[in-house]
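hiii so my PI (J.) wants the whole complex modelled not just the main chain, which honestly fair. so below is everything: three entries, each one labled with what it is. i double checked the lines twice but i was tired so who knows lol
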Amino acid sequence: MSRYRPLPRKFYRRPADQVAADLLGRFLVRRVDGTRLVARIVETEAYLGARDRASHAWQGRRTPRNESLYRPGGVAYVYFIYGMYYCLNAVTGEETNGEAVLIRAAEPIEGGEQMARNRGLERRPRPGDLAGGPGKLCQALRIDKSLDGQVLNVEPLRLTWGDPSDPADIALGERIGIDYAGEAADWQLRFALDGNPHVSKPLPWRSAK
DNA sequence: CGGAAGATCCACT
DNA sequence: GTGGATCTTCCGA
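here's the output for the full assembly
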C-alpha cells in the first residue's frame, strides 16, 4: 500500500515552511509493542532556525537538548516541555541550519483504542481528544525522548505518503504559544487542513488559497 | 463558553 | 530563580 511507503530523505531537504505545508495529510506510522498506530497529520508549524526567535535554534543556540536540530533533514527532534509533555518535530533543510516542523495535530486512522488507552481516556474520544495538540499527539503515539534523533523512514516511527492534502485546502495563521517571540510571533507559519475538526485550535485563519 | 492555576523538567540568566 | 513550541481541571459568567 503506497500510503504507507515512507517519505524519502529528499522530502525533508527543503525550507521548513514548504515541508510544513506538504506534511498535511501525510501519515504518522508508529509501531509499539507489535501494534501499528496510524494518524493523519492535520496541523503543523514551521520553525526557521537561527533567524526565528521562536525557534529552539534562535541565534544558533546549541545544547545537548536540541542537538538533533542541527542534523540534516529527515530525523526526529523530540523535546520535553512544561515538565510533563513531549513534542515531535521533523528536522528539515539541506544544511544543518536548525530548521524543523512541529507536528501539532493528527487524525487517528488506525489503533484509536490503543491511543485512547495511551492518553488515559475513559470516555469515548471526541475529535481532537487523542492527538489534537503536540503534547496529546506524543502521548497517544507513545513518542518520547528515545525517538529523538531517529530517522523518520524506518520503524518504529515513520512518516509516509498518506493521503496528501489539496493545496487549496490549506489554511494558515500565526504559531501558538510564542508571544515572547517579537515580530516572529506574527509570521504566518502555522498550517492546517481548513475546517478539520482534529486541529488543536480553530482560528479565523487566513486561507492560503 | 473563557480565564487562571497547577503539574514539575531543563536550559539558561 | 525563571519561564516555556502544553494540557487539564476548576471556577465564574
